[in-house]
Amino acid sequence: MFTIARWFNGFQAPVVLMIDDLSDAYVDVYPESHKNDWGYMCDLEGSSYSYLKSGLLDLFPHIKMTFFVPYLRHNVINENSKYSFAKYDLGERDEYKDFLSLLDGQGHEIAHHGSDHGEYIDDTMPTTINNWTHEWALFKDVETGVQTTLRGVEKFKEVCDIDVSGGKYCGYISIENSQEIIDRCDLLYWCERPNLDFDDYSEASFGSNEVISFPTTVAGNAFVRLSYLTGNPRKDKKKQFLKYLQPLYDVLSYLRIYKHYKNSHIISIQEHYSPSTTSGLVQSANIVSDIKSLNKTFSFLQHLSIWYATCDEIATYIYVREHSKLTLVGDELHIDFDCGRTLKDPVITIANDEPFRLEDDDHTYVSVENNDSHVVDLPIKSGDNLFFIK
After folding, report:
1. What Rg do the C-alpha atoms of the chain give, in angstroms?
2. DSSP states of 39-88 as a string?
3. Left, alpha or beta for 382 (phi > 0: left; psi -120 to 50: alpha)?
4. Rounded-to-integer distance, Cα 37 and Cα 26, Å
5. Which of 86, 104, 125, 264, by CA, is between 20 and 30 Å from 10?
6. What share of the chain is helix, strand, coil (3-state, %, to 5)?
7. What is the pLDDT of residues 214-269, one digit of tens each?
8. In Å, what is the CA distance from 375 to each residue of 9, 248, 273, 362?
9. Residues contacting 327, CB < 8 A, separation 6+
């Protein structure tokens, strides 16, 4: 029986590593440079990226990452802090611009994460705890939100020649008209809120442009959450005892991930780029503190039927899947693709219980076996796509 596969190439579930707050910035808090780097050091030796590459990416080269990037100077780095720092807008330094282009060229994704992330309520206090307002809460009207968001889309294109298709609210904080703002910007997807509760999972869309609400399903620090230190004496004192519960929490984390996998959910792993803040505390869920946790996560996933993809690739497939209708007429297979967007090289996967071959006027497509099914990936265009079953 011919069907449209839930995921590309018939994989059971897609996986993406989502990393927030990649910025052209550096905060001199720790002796080790990779802990201080927010992106300023790019891919140089001693950078946060070099730490991530040697500690994770070299071991699991199939990983795809979506970086959520503010396009102005990151305001959470407090200029009144006792720590020295450097921070720049997108486009101020060629080294950083080239770094983003490098990541994009490697098949990773650069996504929207606001302009400057927000502002301090009292900027003389370096701590963000009860002293910070996220950017979207500062928008006084829809027009301001639209202009601010579109300016980021334009700037990534102008500076890096990167087409931004989606993004994420800073701190997952939104306002009443946030969906209208994103819809008017005609983005493909947006990460609206964390969906760490399994029952909260959704791939729903919103607005007249059917923007995909991209779920966040796995905390990157799951396998170290009860053991690593935060720099907060009160929390760290509790962790002296909580760390002994980490093995039990590991079991629950494996079960949670596997449940998402068996239900063909998106496995989207939430992280931040740097642990350093100008308050001296460790930023929760960051790639440096969580490298052991990330290794456990991807070690577990590598034995499963996984599609490693970016948020853009996953969202594109969802859009194509939800706007495609398959019909069989004798030995003809029709795929009617109702496309209301400009998409780059849209593809749909067709699955069948038995091996098969499809032909159109130009190509022959031979199925391969994957995940106990026989599948073929077909390029399609808007309208009726005709293939002959052989």
Report:
1. 22
2. STTTTSTTSHHHHHIIIIITT-TT--EEEEE-SS--TTS-TTSSS-EEE-
3. beta
4. 5
5. 104
6. 30, 25, 45
7. 999 999 999 999 888 777 778 778 778 888 889 999 999 999 999 999 999 999 99
8. 6, 39, 37, 19
9. 333, 334, 335, 336
